[in-house]
């Protein structure tokens, strides 16, 4: 008991210190016209103590986007790159969550692009990009659903693994993989019908700028899908203490609680990047079956789908 308490004390969440990059001050309630699944009815977290973070200086609209790279975070992924396709390894939670996040993507994007959700290849003819694709756990099923997929990741080893794995099947061998970042692709003026960044935003240097890059990569009226972890006490207990320290699903230190965003914060930074969130859902884990399902509870893992509202002024 004493040991457990000592461990919990060591692991207590640090006070939230938003960097200039997040600079969201106090999350505010937002009105989403068309959203069908939104926030949980959990009480909001108390506002962060201390002074609000400084407002970052405005960006010159023609300057290149600042780098999204956080070298310490990238080193963690480089260290375990060889395990991407081991469904019992450190990426076990992503493998387990994949069918559920794909169900959300199929449902929302078939509505968005007016495609038949019962079709085997509903995304035929559409150009998708998977930013922070890792070993390609998401890119491959998107290609199987007919999309022309580009996967990019800042870690070279991840891209090598993704390439090797995709080449095992003629359907996925069409995926274009590159070791690069969203902001570099913006500089190259690339654009896509749908942009995905699943479980990436909590690892980037500057979430607000990262969202602006995702927006710039999305064609007008295109779709953006982002998933991440809520900065809630429940997420601290489950996604960090349980997943990293008790169940050893993930290497210790994989996640920093202070890097998580609340759903309100994510919606706000997406709105500032001209992406209007249309639908949001939580992922609920059933410890008895080991399965994940879509839920209205966004208190831990959640996913948001938004539409590019206008040409963003970046
Ligand atoms: C938790 S993994 C998610 C992988 C994949 N999106 C998925 O959900 O299956 C995060 C990935 O984002 C990549 N990453 C982190 N920061 C990045 C950045 N700024 N630009 C591109 N990739 C990044 C990491 O290398 C890692 O592969």
Automatic annotation (TrEMBL):
EC number: 2.1.1.64, 2.1.1.-, 2.1.1.114
Any matching Pfam family: Methyltransf_23
Cofactors, names only: Mg(2+)
Enzyme class: transferase
Secretion signal span: none
Positions annotated to bind S-adenosyl-L-methionine: 101, 132, 153, 198
Reaction catalysis annotation: a 3-demethylubiquinone + S-adenosyl-L-methionine = a ubiquinone + S-adenosyl-L-homocysteine; a 3,4-dihydroxy-5-(all-trans-polyprenyl)benzoate + S-adenosyl-L-methionine = a 4-hydroxy-3-methoxy-5-(all-trans-polyprenyl)benzoate + S-adenosyl-L-homocysteine + H(+); a 3-demethylubiquinol + S-adenosyl-L-methionine = a ubiquinol + S-adenosyl-L-homocysteine + H(+)
Region called Disordered, residue ranges: 38-69
Membrane topology (UniProt): Peripheral membrane protein
Compartments reported by the entry: Mitochondrion inner membrane
Main location: mitochondrion
Record keywords, A-Z: Magnesium, Membrane, Metal-binding, Methyltransferase, Mitochondrion, Mitochondrion inner membrane, S-adenosyl-L-methionine, Transferase, Ubiquinone biosynthesis
Pathway linked to the protein: Cofactor biosynthesis; ubiquinone biosynthesis
Membrane-spanning residues: none
Biological process according to GO: methylation
InterPro entries recorded: SAM-dependent_MTases_sf, UbiG_MeTrfase
Molecular function (Gene Ontology), one example: polyprenyldihydroxybenzoate methyltransferase activity
Superkingdom classification of source: Eukaryota
Gene Ontology cellular-component annotations: extrinsic component of mitochondrial inner membrane
Biological function: O-methyltransferase required for two non-consecutive steps during ubiquinone biosynthesis. Catalyzes the 2 O-methylation of 3,4-dihydroxy-5-(all-trans-polyprenyl)benzoic acid into 4-hydroxy-3-methoxy-5-(all-trans-polyprenyl)benzoic acid. Also catalyzes the last step of ubiquinone biosynthesis by mediating methylation of 3-demethylubiquinone into ubiquinone. Also able to mediate the methylation of 3-demethylubiquinol into ubiquinol.
PANTHER family documented for this protein: METHYLTRANSFERASE, UBIQUINONE BIOSYNTHESIS O-METHYLTRANSFERASE, MITOCHONDRIAL
Subunit (UniProt): Component of a multi-subunit COQ enzyme complex.
Protein name: Ubiquinone biosynthesis O-methyltransferase, mitochondrial
Name of the gene this protein is made from: COQ3
């Amino acid at each position: 008991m004493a040991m457990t308490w000592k461990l919990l004390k060591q692991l207590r969440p640090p006070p939230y210190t938003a960097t200039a990059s997040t600079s969201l001050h106090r999350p505010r309630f937002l009105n989403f016209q068309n959203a069908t699944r939104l926030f949980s009815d959990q009480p909001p977290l108390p506002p962060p103590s201390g002074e609000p973070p400084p407002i970052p200086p405005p960006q010159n609209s023609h300057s290149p986007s600042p780098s999204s790279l956080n070298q310490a975070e990238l080193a963690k992924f480089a260290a375990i790159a060889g395990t991407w396709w081991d469904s019992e390894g450190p990426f076990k939670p992503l493998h387990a969550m994949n069918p559920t996040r794909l169900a959300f993507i199929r449902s929302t994007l078939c509505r968005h692009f007016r495609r038949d959700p019962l079709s085997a290849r509903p995304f035929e003819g559409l150009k998708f990009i998977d930013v922070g694709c890792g070993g390609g756990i998401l890119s491959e099923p998107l290609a199987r659903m007919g999309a022309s997929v580009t996967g990019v990741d800042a870690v070279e080893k991840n891209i090598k693994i993704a390439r090797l794995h995709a080449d095992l099947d003629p359907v996925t061998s069409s995926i274009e993989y590159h070791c690069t970042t969203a902001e570099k692709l913006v500089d190259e003026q690339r654009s896509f019908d749908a942009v995905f960044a699943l479980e990436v935003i909590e690892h980037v240097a500057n979430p607000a700028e990262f969202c602006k890059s995702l927006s710039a990569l999305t064609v007008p009226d295109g779709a953006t899908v982002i998933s991440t972890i809520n900065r809630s006490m429940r997420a601290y207990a489950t996604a960090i203490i349980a997943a990293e320290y008790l169940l050893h699903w993930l290497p210790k230190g994989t996640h920093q609680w202070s890097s998580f965003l609340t759903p309100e914060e994510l919606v706000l930074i997406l709105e500032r990047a001209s992406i209007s969130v249309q639908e949001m859902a939580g992922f609920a884990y059933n410890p008895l079956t080991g399965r994940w399902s879509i839920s209205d509870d966004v208190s831990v893992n959640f996913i948001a789908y938004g539409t590019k509202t206008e040409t963003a002024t970046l």
